[in-house]
Amino acid sequence: MKFNKMLAAVGVTSMLMGTALAGCSSDSSGDGGSSDGEQVTVELAGWGSTPEEKELLNQTLQEFEESHPNIKVEHEVIADQYMDVMKTRLVGGEAADVFYLDAFEAPGLAKTGVLEPLDEYVTDEFDVDDFQDPLLNAFKFDDKQYGFPKDFSTLALFYDKQAFEEAGLEGPPKTWDELREYADKLTVDEDGDGQPDQYGLGFSSELARQFYKLHPYGAKVTNENNEAAFASDKAIEALQPIVDMKKDKIAALPSDAGTDWGGDMFGQGKAAMVIEGNWTVPFLESNFSDKDYATAELPTVNGEKATAAFTVAYVMNKQSEVKDAAWELISYLTGKEGMKTWTSKGLALPTRESVAAELGFDEDPIRKAFVAGASYAQPWQAGPNLPTINNNFNNQFTSALLGDQSLEEALKKAQETANKEIKASN
């Protein structure tokens, strides 16, 4: 699915993310965690990325090795079934010392005890307070920090300036009610056949794109027992507006317009607005360079600012035999210097506020909406059973959008099925 590929590009580069020293054998001399100068090799595993991102990561790793001459990094790209491969290797004692971990999978993996808590390695120089809290806390469980986020993207509203001008609209909608009004005015059916040539809004149906709406209504994805809990009346109230907009043909899925995902739908002019992530920016630059568009923070939901955050961390294998050197790598890649190099082109956004400001992303006309959303975003995360919950939600919610069943029926069926599967797996 295109969305999943683009999420990885935030990584959410491809699932989209300080040179402080710590540990008894490491110091600020940059000797790579080896007090006697012995060469240390740190294995780093992650998924694939675009050529541009690969080049940036290679540059960052090269700069790390230059400043830490006694540490060599062996970087492995796991092209397919990344988490399945990592889980198998962790069980078998063959996993890399440092590896990518998506916030989506973090609660489940932290629960198994295979990750090294990083709190004891952190020094004041690392400046933990510089991270955006929602992104940092996505990798904190039971008061232990298991990873530091390398990059992120929130969701923002992309809107077509020309379409807005033709519809007599100025500026983006501020509330969800206004979004519906705008979508109605922006929907164009030139031949009157009931099939719009331009939809007001393009959106994705996955839970990853819908869950942020629940909290402002007092609804949740899961309960305290990590069971599915999204079939409440409040959840229905939160999700009904987009179902109604789809029914009224002023909002549509990419497939309704013959496209694969929202960025392409927007680029082709088949939607005047889409809700997408920062990964859409380089896509539009490469494929629709003449597109005159702007971005804005998402319209408020039930009177509250809300958006989703997709983030990935570097984490340490608890079984690593070179933990001090592994921390040196993590602290550099997520520190100010390494993060500045990695995010310098805006393909992925920095999770440190100071780096975002230094690179000018907090003032950039296109990217500032994504940066602003980080302070209040909800990470794409909801406990260790989210993969099971996610699959069941997606199947049933799509059927509600297609009109095959009511939203209430769809959510109830999805919740019941998810909880049966969760119970069976425990």
Residue-averaged pLDDT, rounded? Answer: 91
Q: Provide the helix percentage.
A: 25-40%
Tally of DSSP β-strands: 12
Structural class based on helices, strands and sheet pairing: alpha/beta
Evaluate the radius of gyration: 22 Å
As for the CATH topology of the largest domain, it is: D-Maltodextrin-Binding Protein, domain 2
Total number of domains: 2
Distance between the termini: 29 Å
Q: Indicate the low-confidence ranges by residue numbers.
A: 1-35
Chain oligomer state = single chain
- Biggest β-sheet strands, sense, barrel: 10 strands, mixed
- String of helices and strands: HEHEHEHHEEEHHEHHEHEHEEHHHHEHH
Please report which band the strand proportion falls in: under 5%, 5-15%, 15-25%, 25-35%, 35-45% or over 45%.
15-25%
CATH class designation of the largest domain:
Alpha Beta
CATH homology-level superfamily of the largest domain? Periplasmic binding protein-like II
Tell me, what's the shape? globular
Number of helices: 17
Q: At CATH's second level, what is the architecture of the largest domain?
A: 3-Layer(aba) Sandwich
Pfam family, one: SBP_bac_1
Keywords: Signal, Transport
Protein name: ABC transporter substrate-binding protein
Family: Belongs to the bacterial solute-binding protein 1 family.
